[in-house]
């Protein structure tokens, strides 16, 4: 996926890339941001950023052959990171998200949100925060 993204970025002349990911897609967004030099920000919502702790919490077998964002080197400081977690999320609790926030990453816990409820209502605010952090 990173190689395909790099080809698209080069072909389209993309200078800056912001990654967004929800749940497992947030884990993928963090992993890809580290592999695409044009990445300027990564925003996750309810992302299982420590997949080992997530599997342990649910008493599932750990994922084999998968990269764990929590075990990767921190993203460069130039990459803005904002990670949102729901205070009522039982599938991916805030502590699982917190375990994978590295470097200058910021964790925002929204107390009333669970894993599926209400995140869409926050998107305008999320996009505004990303724009402020990365510039217009």
Model description:
With 136 residues, the protein is α/β, with parallel strands linked by helices. The protein has one domain: 3-Layer(aba) Sandwich (Rossmann fold), CATH 3.40.50.1820. The protein is 36% helix and 18% strand. It is built from five helices and four strands, in the order αβαβαβαβα. A four-stranded parallel β-sheet has the order 1-2-3-4, with helices on both faces. The longest helix is centred in the C-terminal third of the chain and has 16 residues, at 119-134. It is globular, with a radius of gyration of 15 Å. The two termini are 27 Å apart. The model has no long low-confidence stretch (mean pLDDT 93).
Distance between the termini: 27 Å
Sheet with most strands: strand arrangement: 1-2-3-4
Please tell me the CATH architecture by its name. Answer: 3-Layer(aba) Sandwich
**Helix share bin:** 25-40%
Mass-distribution shape:
globular
Strand content: 15-25%
CATH superfamily label: Alpha/Beta hydrolase fold, catalytic domain
Question: How would you sum up the major sheet?
Answer: 4 strands, parallel
Mean pLDDT: 93
């Amino acid at each position: 996926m990173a190689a395909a993204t790099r080809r698209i970025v080069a072909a389209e002349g993309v200078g800056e890339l912001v990654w967004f990911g929800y749940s497992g897609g947030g884990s993928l967004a963090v992993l890809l941001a580290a592999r695409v030099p044009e990445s300027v920000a990564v925003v996750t919502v309810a992302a299982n950023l420590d997949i080992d702790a997530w599997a342990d919490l649910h008493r599932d077998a750990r994922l084999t052959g998968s990269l764990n964002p929590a075990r990767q080197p921190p993203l460069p400081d130039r990459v803005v990171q904002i990670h949102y977690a729901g205070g009522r999320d039982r599938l991916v609790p805030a502590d699982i998200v917190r375990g994978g926030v590295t470097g200058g990453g910021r964790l925002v816990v929204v107390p009333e949100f669970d894993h599926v409820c209400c995140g869409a209502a926050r998107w305008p605010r999320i996009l505004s925060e990303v724009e402020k952090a990365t510039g217009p």
